[in-house]
Write a structure and sequence with these properties.
The complex is a heterodimer of chains A (253) and B (150).
Chain A lengths: L5 H26 L16 E6 L8 H10 L10 E8 L8 E3 L17 E8 L7 H5 L5 E3 L5 E3 L9 H5 L6 E2 L6 E2 L5 H4 L6 H5 L5 E5 L6 H8 L2 E2 L11 E4 L7
Chain B lengths: L7 H24 L13 H7 L8 H7 L1 H8 L8 H5 L3 H5 L10 H9 L14 H5 L16
Classes of the chains: A alpha+beta (253), B mainly alpha (150).
Chain lengths: 253, 150
């Protein structure tokens, strides 16, 4: 038998370490007398993405409220994991769209009834970039991409240095006023790993938001992406976002 | 042997290196969490911590478990897509223990969340001026929220 090469050895060791870690995690539940609560979720089998259908958004703000409730997001100003913007574009001045988002759309929007102005709602949230700047700049490894493609924050390990808040081209991060650490959309990681939809998707009354698993060949997201002209925000940043927008206007940044 | 007579300075250097390396290894062991780097350049337990967050919205499937009669009515009409908790609010506590009463939503306020007029809403979405359309009348005098056609 030829001696194993270094690559194979490192791979084997790595797998062994990961398995030992998950076994140790499972053992904690067994010892606590709740073996059924052992996480049997296989992160490597998923690659989560989000689809936003702009043409369905009615700006009701239910997603903003649901997100804050589900994730205990602070009600203080500028603390949003998701928010809704309303664009008003005057055809005489298309380069300067008027964008409003009163309290992130938490209380809905004061109605506009000005005819002749192009106007629509755009929900925003973390784009779960495959190459995310926020992960790259974190000096301590407190923000990272999970094996299933979600960018998370380790709130116990975060220093609150705010590098990631500045690095995000989409403005999706904020500093939690209670813990003074970075916070952002987790795609409701606690829900999607238990087979539920994120709170905003669950609550959206028009189906403007949907979660998809790009690694699941039977997921309807593949059909949607094939049959619709979708776009991502700021593709020039080369962040490779996994939040796809259908019917996105060129004015949206 | 004369060549190796003065090697004390090398021993001192070696001792210094040994202390330095031991100090580095000790500090690293103290400061770096045990599960750091198991999956990637982060604490592996941060995943489990994020997963451990409590669930507040039960989700449609949990509602249908008991309220399948309402789900059957909903299925055939315009509100088929609307999540139960969009109108009824977060009800994971109620789903876990039916003894926890679910609050009945105020009809007019709840309808208005979506159906107030706004030109930013997509074409075809049904909106209505509530005051002109119904005065002070409750929406549910004519429309059933689970089967909204009049």
């Amino acid at each position: 038998m030829p001696p194993p090469d270094r690559r194979a050895f490192l791979l084997q060791t790595g797998k062994l370490l990961v398995l030992t870690a998950s076994a140790a995690a499972a053992w904690d539940y067994v010892m606590a007398g709740e073996p059924e609560k052992t996480p049997d979720y296989d992160a490597a089998a998923h690659w989560w993405a989000m689809v936003i259908d702009v043409e369905r958004c009615i700006g009701c703000g239910l997603c903003v409220r649901a997100c804050k409730t589900e994730n205990h997001v602070s009600l203080e100003p500028d603390c949003f994991r998701t928010w809704v913007e309303r664009y008003e574009i005057d055809p005489d001045d298309p380069d300067h769209p008027h964008v409003t988002s009163p309290n992130g759309g938490y209380d809905g929007f004061p109605p506009v009834t000005n005819e002749g102005v192009k106007t629509f709602f755009v929900p925003k949230l973390c784009n779960q970039c495959a190459d995310s700047p926020c992960v790259q700049v974190c000096p301590v490894g407190a923000t990272f991409q999970t094996p299933d493609g979600v960018v998370l924050v380790d709130k116990d390990y975060c220093l609150g240095c705010r590098y990631c808040v500045q690095a995000c081209p989409y403005g999706c991060r904020y500093i939690d006023p209670e813990t003074h650490t970075a916070d952002k959309c987790t795609l409701c990681y606690h829900r999607i790993t238990r087979g539920l939809k994120p709170a905003c998707v669950e609550i959206c009354p028009t189906g403007a938001r949907s979660l998809g698993d790009l690694k699941d060949p039977n997921d309807p997201i593949h059909e949607f992406l094939r049959t619709h002209k979708v776009h991502v925000l700021k593709p020039q940043m080369a962040t490779h976002p996994k939040t796809f927008y259908n019917g996105l206007d060129g004015a949206v940044r | 042997m004369a060549r190796f007579s003065s090697y004390e300075h090398l021993l001192r250097l070696a001792a210094l290196f040994a202390v330095g390396i031991a100090l580095f290894a000790g500090l690293r062991w103290l400061l770096v969490p045990a599960d750091y780097g198991l999956i990637g350049p982060y604490r592996a337990s941060a995943l489990t911590q994020n997963q451990a967050h409590p669930i507040v919205y039960a989700g449609r499937l949990a509602c249908i478990d008991c309220h399948s009669d309402v789900a059957d009515v909903l299925k055939a009409n315009a509100h088929a897509r609307v999540g139960c908790e969009s109108c009824h609010g977060a009800l994971a506590a109620h789903a876990a223990d039916p003894g926890v009463t679910a609050i009945r939503p105020d009809v007019r306020t709840t309808c208005a969340i979506c159906h107030v007029p706004d030109t930013a809403k997509p074409a075809g979405f049904k909106t209505v001026n509530f005051a002109e359309h119904a005065g002070a009348e409750s929406c549910s005098s004519c429309h059933q929220p689970h089967a909204p056609r009049p």
